[in-house]
Amino acid sequence: MKPIVPQYFNDKAHVIVQDVLDYAEERHVREGTCTAQSAAQYLTLDYIATCRDFMFHATQYLENEERVGADLFLAKLPRGRLKDRFERNRVACAWQLATQTRRYFPDYEPLLRLAFLHVLRSVDDTNTIRWNGVVLLAAASLPGVLTDIRRELRRRGIKYDVTLVADATVERRTERAARLPTLLCLR
Q: How is the chain split into domains, by residue range?
């Protein structure tokens, strides 16, 4: 089996991910899980929670771990008639969602920042903060968060610099986010 190398943007996976998320939103609204106005936020928070749970106790953010989190998230969504097409392209769809998260979840950054601030305010143990999946995801995805984490850990007594995300990973993710046209966030 040939290894999948993540691309900047995969058109085929984009269409499938968009269809799966659209079907999941429609199904959640129909079943009464959430309202039509909050369906996108519901899925965004579920994505963050799924990645958080998978990355829990990791010592450093790795892009492949977020890809697995995205895979787990997509796997638990209702897919209906899209199941076969999704299964054939599952890994590519997970890479697409993990690398283009802002495109599919317009409120991703503010909701991730709120989840990150909640962790900082509610957790006392420095190891729990360092190994929390939300903290790792925020450190890799949000500008300025690495500085905030280092400052908070220093206030709590950590005397060394904690590397939560490799500098090359942060640069790559920041560059990718900068290339995203803002109009494409609208579905």
A: 11-178
